[in-house]
């Protein structure tokens, strides 16, 4: 866990701010534009403008962090339909992260009552108003998601925003993604910034169909998943072939309890034993095609 005072605001390309995690060695949001990322990688792929026409929209925010993805979702929904009732479940490992974001006024750029409501959520771990019913689960997301699954929470939108798979494989495993699939409504969508073949392979193994989302700034495209392939933007041929290589072998955590090093080692052993094409061969083939 990191101390609330250890976080220093870092400006991003669209004027919003993010933090750098010394523990994971990564920024919490894209330095190209943290607020823009929340909209383009999470809110828009989940079709929240369309879903805002519903009486109730249910959101599951995995790795709540600074609160940007949730704030962007609430603003999008209530701008279109102020009467829409939002039911939110947010998972977060480290409570000092959202508290630091509140302390630095990161959410003040969003319309009221969003900053006020999310500050209450961070302080009290729950909010109950006519507009918003929200709960913040603190601790290991693998345990929290099992509690949520047992409550039969059907999410219309799932934001999957952990640190990268190599830094935090615990929340990218087939078993964790299967838990998310069971918490996803039949017409729901899951969005993540990651386009890693292992993540996409894991989503497919968990029962999702997948598509690509646009890149933010100079970064890679993201991924959107649902149970209906016909509604998804298609993957490129290059990406489809990537899913036929060893890179697409997913992370596994059978008991949803292993440490990161064990999960990484388990995948490495499975890759070494695999008869699939090495990803290096795929990379060379496509580099030649594209004249790189």
Task: Give the secondary structure arrangement, pairings included.
Layout lengths: L9 E2 L5 E2 L1 E2 L4 E2 L6 H10 L4 H4 L4 E7 L5 H13 L4 E8 L3 H8 L10 H11 L1 E3 L3 E7 L2 H10 L4 E6 L13 H9 L1 E9 L4 H9 L3 E5 L8 E5 L10 H6 L17 H14 L5 H11 L3
Helix pairs in contact: 1-3, 6-7
What is the helix tally? 11
How many strand units?
Answer: 12
Helix content: 25-40%
Question: What spatial form do the alpha-carbon principal axes imply?
Answer: globular
Largest sheet: 8 strands, mixed
Strand line-up of the largest beta sheet: 7-8-6-5-9-10-12-11
Give the CA-CA distance, first to last residue.
42 Å
The arrangement of helices and strands along the chain is EEEEHHEHEHHEEHEHEHEEHHH
In what range is the share of β-strand residues?
15-25%
- Give the uncertain stretches in residue-range form: none
- Overall average pLDDT: 93
- Judged by helices, strands and strand pairing, the structural class is alpha/beta
User: How many whole angstroms does the radius of gyration measure?
Assistant: 19 Å
Q: If you had to describe this structure to a student in words, what would you say it looks like?
A:
- The longest helix is centred in the C-terminal third of the chain and has 14 residues, at 260-273.
- The protein has an eight-stranded mixed beta sheet with strand order 7-8-6-5-9-10-12-11, sandwiched between helices. Strands 1-2 form a two-stranded antiparallel sheet.
- The chain is built from eleven helices and twelve strands.
- The model has no long low-confidence stretch (mean pLDDT 93).
- Helices cover 36% and strands 20% of the residues.
- The protein has 292 residues and is an alpha/beta fold.
- The chain has helices spanning 34-43, 48-51, 68-80, 96-103, 114-124, 141-150, 174-182, 197-205, 237-242, 260-273, 279-289; strands at 10-11, 17-18, 20-21, 26-27, 56-62, 85-92, 126-128, 132-138, 155-160, 184-192, 209-213, 222-226.
- It is globular and about 55 Å long.
- A hairpin with an 8-residue loop joins strand 11 (209-213) and strand 12 (222-226).
């Amino acid at each position: 866990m990191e101390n609330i005072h250890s976080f220093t605001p870092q400006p991003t390309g669209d004027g919003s701010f993010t933090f750098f995690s010394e523990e994971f060695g990564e920024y919490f949001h894209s330095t190209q534009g943290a607020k823009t990322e929340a909209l383009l990688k999470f809110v828009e792929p989940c079709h929240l403008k369309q879903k805002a026409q519903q009486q109730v929209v249910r959101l599951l925010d995995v790795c709540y962090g600074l609160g940007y993805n949730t704030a962007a979702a609430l603003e999008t929904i209530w701008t279109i339909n102020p009467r829409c009732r939002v039911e939110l479940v947010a998972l977060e490992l480290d409570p000092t992260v959202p508290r630091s974001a509140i302390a630095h006024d990161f959410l003040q750029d969003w319309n009221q009552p969003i900053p006020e409501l999310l500050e209450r959520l961070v302080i009290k771990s729950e909010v109950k108003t006519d507009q918003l019913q929200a709960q913040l689960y603190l601790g290991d997301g693998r345990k929290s998601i099992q509690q949520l699954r047992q409550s039969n929470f059907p999410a219309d939108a799932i934001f999957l925003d952990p640190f990268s798979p190599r830094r935090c494989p615990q929340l990218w495993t087939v078993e964790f993604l299967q838990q998310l699939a069971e918490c996803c409504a039949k017409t729901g969508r899951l969005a993540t910034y990651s386009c890693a073949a292992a993540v996409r392979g894991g989503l497919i193994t968990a029962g999702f169909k997948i598509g690509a989302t646009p890149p933010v700034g100079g970064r890679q495209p993201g991924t959107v998943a649902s149970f209906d392939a016909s509604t998804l933007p298609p993957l490129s041929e290059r990406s489809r072939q990537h899913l036929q290589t060893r890179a697409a072998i997913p992370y596994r955590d059978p008991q949803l309890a292993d440490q990161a090093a064990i999960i990484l080692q388990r995948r490495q052993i499975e890759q070494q034993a695999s008869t699939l094409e090495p990803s290096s061969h795929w990379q060379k083939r496509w580099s030649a095609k594209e004249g790189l």
